Amino acid sequence: MNINFKNILIALIEKEFKSYLRSINNFMNMIVFMIAIIILFPLTVGPSEEKLTLVSNAIVWIALIVSIIPTLDKIYISDFKNGWLEQYYYSPLLLEIIILIKCFVFWFFLIIPLTIFIPIFSILLNIPFLIIFWNIIIFAIGSLGFCLIGSICSSLTLGTKSNNLISPLLILPLAIPIFIFGNGVVEAVKSNYDPLPNLYLLITVCLILLIISPLISAYSIKIALTK
Amino acid sequence: MKSRLKDNMILKNISLTRGLKTIFSNLNIEFLCPGLNIIKGENGSGKTSLLMMISTLLLEDRGTIIRLGKLKKNDWLNEHILIKQNSSLSDELTIEENLKIWCGLRGWDFNTDKIEKSLKNFGILKYKNFLVSECSSGIKKKAELSKLNFDESFKLKCWLLDEPLNHLDENGKLFLKKIMDKFINMNGTILQTSHEKKINHKNFKIIKL
Prior knowledge:
The complex is a heterodimer of chains A (227) and B (209).
Chain A: H1 5-22, H2 24-45, H3 49-72, H4 77-81, H5 84-90, H6 95-111, H7 117-124, H8 129-156, H9 163-190, H10 196-226
Chain B: E1 10-18, E2 21-30, E3 35-40, H1 47-54, E4 62-66, H2 73-78, E5 80-83, H3 95-105, H4 112-121, H5 137-145, H6 151-154, E6 158-162, H7 170-185, E7 189-193, E8 204-208
Parallel strand pairs in B: 3-7, 3-8, 5-6, 6-7
Antiparallel strand pairs in B: 1-2, 1-4
């Protein structure tokens, strides 16, 4: 039988796109959560500009990460419940490649639009333009790493009943290298050092995740499906 | 097509446990290939588990399964369809979108005419733009069974159908029988679980668990 791999790719991207489009309230939840953190944080720190300048970059990062983490463990859960993961398993395309495409689509449709909000929030918190520029680059690269980590954790917790508790515990330690190198770039820019070494390290971490995440995720999904 | 006549499907000394429960121990079955195999048994006797095991969604603890002439696992995945008892359609998508994407994921063509023809045969063409979450169980079941009515589905070697008659009306049952007969005439093998007493097919084998 003729198998058209182009059809598989089109079908997969179409399915993911339409699913995200029809569950847009997830995206709105993320934004509302982010706005809440950005507004509440300066109120608790107090009206001192010095204090705020010191922590403003951290506030943006925490707001972004905290709003993303609850969605990361849901990459596969709905597909698992309504049987689509089984259809991926039956597909002639390797499950690893399907997972990679799913992660890219998740990143592109759900996470990348959030970067639009970085300049808006950064201006509100009086962050310099140069830092805003680097923040956007780091977040775009680092968030792909978060998605790939999310894919591992989401697939590992598929069969468990209390995955809401386990996923953040799994995601946070794995995400530490991204935090360290991402923050290293911003610190280097602030201190007028070369930010590129830290950026390269961040890219390296993401590339390593790009290789290991689909392999681990596919293996865990197969276990979850066949147990 | 002729090579299918030599195919056979045999379970030898199969044991399967799920959790602490033993579902089968030393199960031996030889299925009718090509032909219709109706698997009967009480609730909890392991009919669905048997189909899932044959489909490789459950792994047997012991024993050997010969799936139509020892096809490789990857070949086997592309040579059969499993229609489960519960709907495996995405609630956020319409019936047409679900079927289109399902065909696409299999690497088949997914043009609208093909989907519409299949839905029309089952009498649910007017529901094609309905979200699955808005449809009744019967329509969902018919949409699910429409997957069997594509040209590519008839070229496969095996259909695994888990209680396909549930929620179906008389017209749905008649059309399902028609396509099942057509598939068997094309040397296909069907493994179907069922609680129905009356069987309208000519050539079949009943397997009791």
